[in-house]
Amino acid sequence: MKSNHPMAEALRHMLSAPGGIELPGCYDALSAMILERAGFHAVFMSGYGIAASLLGNPDIGLTSLVETSLMAKNITNAIHVPLIVDADNGYGDEDSVVRTVFELERAGAAGMILEDQVFPKRCGHAAGKAIIPLDKYMRKLECALEARQTSMVIVARTDATSIDEGIARARRFAAAGADVTLVDGLPSVEALRRVGDEVPGHKVINLIHGGKTPLLPSAELHDLGFKIVLYSTPALYTATRTMIAAMSRLAETGELGSISDDSVSFRDFQQLIESTYLRRHGSAGLAPPAPAPTTSHTRLAAAVDPAERAARSRVG
Description:
By secondary structure, the protein is an alpha/beta fold. The protein has helices at 6-16, 29-38, 47-55, 65-78, 94-106, 134-147, 163-176, 189-198, 218-223, 234-253, 266-277, 299-302, 306-314, and strands spanning 21-26, 43-45, 83-86, 111-115, 153-158, 180-183, 202-207, 228-231.
């Protein structure tokens, strides 16, 4: 590792600090900003969410490295907390994995997840997954670890459908130097216990509403041995449900006032966007004088300042 990466260092500090990490998934820059504003100290860029929001596609390997790295760059420019990027299966062979590491480091990612699925891949909680031979994945993982020019965190993920194979692979990943491991799609509490007990090092558990893994409280999952609880899809799913309901009502009524209770106002949305943009490097001179505080802002506008939250996350 040759250069300093403040956000990767912040993420490593979070990993080494006591307690667990709650990691929500975003699907674009705006959703990442909202997750930061909501109080999370790190954000995950969901490949599942990017495929849906950017392309309108299911998570079947149609998103390219170019699209992923561009979205990662836009998101890291918009938030002040570490971003972990879903890099799927590295978009190809070992050479593609090396380029993936290079592009995501340049995009400002603090971490990336590299999985062992075949191409084309599938969502980790979907049926029909298949994985590549272990020796082939280990070469990809070793290339990713060696290619880093920064302290970017590497999360090694297996989609093995057998719990025994998943544990065996995760143990190999940790022994090879992966910073964090993820056995995705765990189907039972007993499987959670086994991974927590038998896989060394930092571990992630991925929770999806309607997915395979039991939706235990995060405190219980941390106690089972999972450092990171990944909520990869709630932002996408709740935004989808709210938009379908509100826009259907608007289409039926033809009255904008009929969805006012489900909407932020122009003023509050502008405050969210401008307060974030005008804290980015080089933009301070664009900021207007701060208005006197009012009591009319919504929770979205009145939440804790993102710069303050970033400072808190850097100190654990």
